[in-house]
């Protein structure tokens, strides 16, 4: 029997795994209510939510309704939203980003929960002996990119960089997971790696400024706080002439030179397809493996690369700014 602990607030205890199925029943008129907790508003998470809603709407039409709530980056607000969904007896909760998943986990062991934009479920829910299935009432999709390939891409984009700084929010456990993994890959390439963590947006400016003054290039993982503050990061990095390789396209648009990114809309769409199986076809969510993005795209920002004098390989596609 596995035990998992939510990292929200004072480490709320989640109920241990049960063997019962977790399949919702439609209301008397055949409709479903779905609650969506989105940690914060930024390009990647917005796209995941849009994809999720599109998939369910295509399959269920007006039989499904959504209550989309944004927590404005606050874990405590995620918990409040999750508890309200439980009180309102929604048929399914979609949790967009790790703190949203943790909050949903702490709020119910009965209502089906699907996560998305969660990098590593074992880290997020403190699961030992991870086998790809969360069990109980939870499953979802992961936005984990191949970090070994990202390290390779970073090295080919910035071949002269010897010291790489990694900028991330220490309050996000899945960011720490990525930092640990990619540090090993970069060090295996003979690069020096320095980690620069900030606790929240209040100390991001100082930490970023320090990092840009000490390294040849920066790496930013799929970090929600960084994604919500790309303008600030870009201003500092541009002034210092420090190039940035990013974990996903949204952050790259805001402050990066290049990325190896997943498609968050497609990831959310897959999550919506999983929700349809649970809601309409009665699939037991506790048996559904976590799903991963099937493809990744090499992308770059032409103007930023040109300004920094960086030559990008031909197999990178230019990011089109809207």
Structure explained in plain terms:
The chain is of the alpha/beta class and 322 residues long. The protein has two domains: 32-143 and 264-289, Rossmann fold (3-Layer(aba) Sandwich), CATH 3.40.50; 147-261 and 297-318, Rossmann fold (3-Layer(aba) Sandwich). Helices cover 40% and strands 20% of the residues. It contains twelve helices and 13 strands. The strands form two sheets. The protein has a seven-stranded mixed β-sheet with strand order 7-6-8-9-10-12-13, with helices on both faces. A six-stranded parallel β-sheet has the order 2-1-3-4-5-11, sandwiched between helices. Helix 12 links the parallel strand 12 and strand 13. The protein starts with 31 loop residues before the first strand and ends with a strand. Mean pLDDT is 91; it is low at 1-21.
Instruction: Give the overall average pLDDT.
Output: 91
CATH fold assignment of the largest domain? Rossmann fold
> Separation of termini?
49 Å
Global morphology: elongated
Q: Key features?
A:
alpha/beta, Rossmann fold, disordered N terminus, 322 residues, seven-stranded mixed sheet
Topology, pairings included?
Blueprint: E1 32-38, H1 43-60, E2 64-70, H2 75-87, E3 92-96, H3 98-107, E4 113-118, H4 121-125, E5 138-142, H5 147-157, E6 163-169, H6 173-188, E7 192-198, H7 204-214, E8 217-220, H8 224-227, H9 230-240, E9 244-246, H10 249-255, E10 258-261, H11 264-279, E11 291-292, E12 297-300, H12 302-307, E13 317-318
Parallel strand pairs: 1-2, 1-3, 3-4, 4-5, 5-11, 6-7, 6-8, 8-9, 9-10, 12-13
Antiparallel strand pairs: 10-12
Helix pairs in contact: 1-11, 2-3, 5-6, 7-9, 9-10
């Amino acid at each position: 029997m596995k035990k998992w602990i939510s990292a929200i607030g004072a480490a709320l205890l989640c109920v241990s795994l049960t063997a019962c199925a977790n399949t919702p029943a439609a209301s008397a008129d055949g409709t479903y209510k779905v609650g969506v907790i989105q940690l914060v508003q930024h390009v990647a998470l917005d796209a995941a939510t849009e994809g999720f809603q599109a998939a369910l709407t295509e399959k269920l039409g007006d039989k499904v309704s959504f209550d989309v709530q944004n927590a404005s980056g606050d874990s405590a607000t995620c918990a409040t939203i999750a508890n309200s969904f439980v009180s309102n007896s929604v048929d399914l909760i979609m949790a967009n980003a790790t703190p949203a998943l943790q909050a949903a986990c702490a709020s119910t062991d009965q209502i089906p929960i699907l996560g998305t934009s969660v990098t590593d479920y074992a880290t997020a829910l403190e699961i030992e002996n991870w086998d790809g299935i969360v069990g109980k009432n939870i499953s979802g999709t992961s936005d984990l990119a191949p970090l070994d390939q990202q390290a390779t891409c970073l090295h080919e984009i910035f071949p002269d960089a010897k010291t790489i700084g990694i900028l991330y929010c220490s309050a996000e456990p899945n960011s720490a997971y990525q930092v640990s993994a990619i540090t090993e890959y970069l060090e295996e390439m003979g690069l020096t790696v320095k980690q620069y963590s900030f606790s929240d947006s209040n100390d991001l400016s100082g930490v970023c400024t320090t990092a840009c003054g000490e390294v040849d290039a920066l790496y930013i993982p799929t970090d929600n706080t960084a994604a919500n503050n790309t303008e600030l990061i870009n201003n500092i990095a541009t002034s210092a002439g420090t190039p940035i390789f990013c974990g996903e396209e949204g952050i790259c648009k805001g402050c990066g030179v290049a990325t190896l990114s997943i498609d968050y809309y497609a990831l959310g769409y897959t999550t919506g397809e999983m929700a349809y199986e649970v809601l309409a076809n009665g699939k037991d969510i506790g048996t559904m493996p976590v799903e991963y993005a099937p493809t990744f795209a090499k992308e770059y920002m032409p103007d930023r690369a040109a300004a920094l004098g960086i030559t990008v390989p031909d197999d990178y596609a230019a990011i089109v700014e809207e």
